[in-house]
Amino acid sequence: MNIYFGDLHNHCNISYGFGNLEYALMEAREHLDFCTVTGHAHWPDIFRRNEDTGFIIDFHRAGFEKLSKNWNWVTKAIADANEEGSFVTFQSYEMHSSKYGDHHFLSPDDSLTLETGDSPAEVIENLAAEAVAIPHHIAYTPGYRGISWVDFNENISPVVEVYSKHGSGVSDESAGEYLHTMGPRDGRNTVYSGLKQGKRFGFAGSTDHHAGYPGSYGDGLTAVLSDSLDRKSIWQAILARRTYALTGDRIRCRFAVNGKPMGSILEPVENARYRLEVNGTDFIEKAVIYKNLESVMVRHREDFIGEGSLNNIYKIRIEVGWGRKSSPYHWKNMISLTNGEIVSIDKCFRGQNVLAPKEGVDHPDDVNRLGNKACILNCSKAVFECTTFRNTTTRHSSTNAVILEIKGDESTGLTIDVNDKIVNVSIGELVKNSVSGHMNEYNCEAYLIHKAVAREFYNFAMEGEIKVEPGDFIHAEVHQTNGQSAWISPVFFDRK
Ligand SMILES: [Zn+2]
Predict the structure, then answer these.
(1) Are residues 234 and 378 in the same domain?
(2) Which distant-in-sequence residues (6+ apart) come within 8 Å of 149 by Cβ?
(3) What is the structure's pLDDT at 442?
C-alpha cells in the first residue's frame, strides 16, 4: 500500500474563517494528496450572551448562516476539485458542542446535506449521505468543548483528530500544549484517557486552519495507507482506521501486528508479532512501540553514533523565511546537484496563520493565495517557490521549506540559487553542520540549509514479539529531534 497525506479539517471564508475557497483548494493541490475544506454549521448548546460573549456568539451565528446560504456552491466547488488519481476531496462541515465536544462530519458523497442535531450521533442519524463524525481538539476541559469519552461511539467515529493547530491531545506528557483562547489541555480528555477506557479508534491529524491554507505545515496532517489515490480507497482506509497523525513532516510509517496493518481489530491470540518501518525526515530522536500504553520496545537517537554514510543517501532540508517585515516576501529557489541524484522532495508549506475572528480585524480574501510550489525538474535539479512572512513570535515559525532526499556522497555539491544569490555547499560540509545566509544587510529574510541527515538516522525497522490478551492494543510513536512526531493508530485485539 502507498502512503498519502492530507488534511481532513480546516476552514476558510465559507463560514467564519478567512480566505476564498478557490484559493484554499488551489494551494492544497500543490502539496496534499487529499483534503476537505470545512464549513462551521451549528452549535446547539452555545453559551449565554453577556457583555463578554456577544461578539463571539454573533460571529458564530453569522458564519453558520453564511455556510447554509452558500452550501450548494461550496459542495459543487469541492466536488469539482476532486481529481481521482492526483487530488482527492471530501465534503465536510463542523458542529460545535459544549457537551460532546466539537466534531466535523466527513463524507465521500457530494450530495451531503447540512443537518442539525443536539449530538454528533443525531446529526449522523439525520443524514442520508454516508459520513463519519470526527471529534477534534478533544483534550479541552470536559463540558467546555472537549470530547465526552462516555458518549464516544466507534461506529460513527472510526478516527479521532489527535493533533492540530490547537496542540496535541495525545496525553498529559505529549509535547504540544494547548494555548488557544479556548483554554488548557485536560488529561481526562486525552487520547490515552480514551484508550484506557477501552475506546477503539484510529489517529488523524489536521490543521483546523482558519484562513484557507489546508495542510499548513506544523499544524497537523493525516497519513493514510491505501492502494490508490481515489476517493473510494482513501475513504475505505479512514473507515478501517488505516491512518496516522503527523505534526507536519511526512514521516513515512508502516506498522503491522501479526501481518495486519495499523487500525486493525484482530481476533484474540496469545502472541503478537509487531513490526514498525520508519522513513523519517530528520534524526529520529525516539521510536517507541507500546502495549496498552506501556513501552515494549524503544529505539533512541543515542543508539547510533557517528555521522553515518553506509547507504550514501541523505535528507537535506532547505528552509527560507525570517525577516522583520510584515509584508510578503517571495522566493524563487533553484537547487542543482553535481555528482548526486535527487530521489524525492517533501514540501513543508505554511499559510498565514489566523486563530479566530478578532474584533476590528479583517483579512483579505487572498490572505493565503501564496503560490507555494516545488518540484523535481530532473535527477539533478529542483525548483522551490514560495511566499513567507516574518515569524509570528520568536517561538512561532512562519518559514517554508523543502526536504530533498539525495543519493550521493560527501563530494556531492549543491548549488542553490536563492533569489539570484548563489550558494555552494557540499554534503561533506552539511554532514558536519548547517549553513545559513541572509538576503540583505540586517534583520532581513534568510535561508538555512540544514545539517544533512544520513539514511541510517531516519530509516529503519524494528520488530519483536509479545504476549497479548483479549482487549489489548499495540501502537507506535515516532519523535524526531526537530520536534516533529507521528502517532500511529493502534492494532486492537478484540475483547472475547
Ligand atoms: Zn474546526
Answers:
(1) no
(2) 189, 193, 194, 197, 199
(3) 87
